[in-house]
């Protein structure tokens, strides 16, 4: 039987240094690779999170955009207009656009359709002949009060796999993200990370 100790003792000193040197080199390469992977993960975590955020947003909006969350003939933007008028009262086009995050150009067509269907009406603004306020008609108020519970129930269902604590945290993070982007846009700067650097 071969004595392993005798083999070890018979190794020449240069050979031992050569083996040790290669072990050290291999360890250094492993550390370098681990460092590169860490940098890649830190860099890609923003892209990965954005992808997940976008897909989740799309899934939720698709879920809320048709039956049973909404009647087949009503779009989510139409619902948004009726809902904001129900809770905020008559508003100008600009105010509605700011509330539901839509451009005024796209909103004009939506309001035209709602007015055609008898759900809203345009009213002159006292002292400003160029401005109009949009208000719910009795038919529009009845319509949104019927549809709103459907949408509210669908929203609760969409978040049904999250705990109350998780929903609260998600809401806090979304608000934090949104306010940061609004602040940075107003200041004309790039959005900042928590470490103070720009993305």
Termini gap: 64 Å
Shape: elongated
Radius of gyration: 31 Å
Secondary-structure element order, as H and E? HHHEHHEEHH
Low-pLDDT stretches: 194-199
Strand order of the largest sheet: 1-3-2
Helix content: 55-70%
Reported for the largest beta sheet, the result is: 3 strands, antiparallel
Mean pLDDT: 82
What is the number of strand segments?
3
Q: How much strand?
A: 5-15%
Query: Helical element count?
Result: 7
What structural class do the secondary elements suggest?
mainly alpha
Could you provide a short overview of the structure?
With 199 residues, the chain is mostly helical. It is 69% helix and 9% strand.
Task: Describe the 3D structure.
- By secondary structure, this protein is mostly helical.
- 69% of the residues lie in helices and 9% in strands.
- The chain has helices at residues 4-10, 13-64, 76-88, 93-100, 104-116, 138-158, 164-187; strands spanning 91-92, 120-125, 128-136.
- Strand 2 and strand 3 form a beta hairpin.
- The termini are far apart.
- The model is unreliable at 194-199 (pLDDT under 50).
């Amino acid at each position: 039987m071969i004595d392993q100790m005798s083999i070890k003792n018979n190794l020449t000193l240069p050979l031992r240094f050569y083996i040790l040197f290669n072990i050290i080199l291999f360890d250094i390469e492993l550390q370098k690779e681990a460092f590169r992977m860490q940098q890649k993960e830190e860099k890609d975590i923003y892209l990965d999170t954005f992808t997940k955020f976008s897909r989740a947003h799309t899934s939720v909006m698709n879920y809320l955009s048709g039956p049973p969350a909404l009647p087949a003939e009503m779009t989510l933007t139409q619902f948004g207009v009726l809902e904001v008028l129900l809770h905020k009262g008559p508003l100008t086009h600009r105010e509605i656009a700011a509330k539901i995050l839509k451009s005024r150009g796209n909103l004009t067509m939506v309001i035209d359709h709602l007015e055609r269907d008898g759900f809203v009406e345009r009213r002159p603004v006292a002292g400003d002949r160029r401005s109009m306020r949009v208000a719910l008609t009795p038919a529009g108020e009845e319509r949104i009060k019927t549809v709103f519970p459907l949408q509210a129930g669908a929203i609760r269902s969409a978040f049904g796999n999250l705990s109350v604590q998780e929903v609260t945290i998600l809401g806090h993070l979304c608000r934090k993200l949104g306010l940061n982007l609004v602040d940075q846009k107003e200041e004309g700067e790039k959005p900042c990370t928590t470490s103070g650097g720009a993305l």
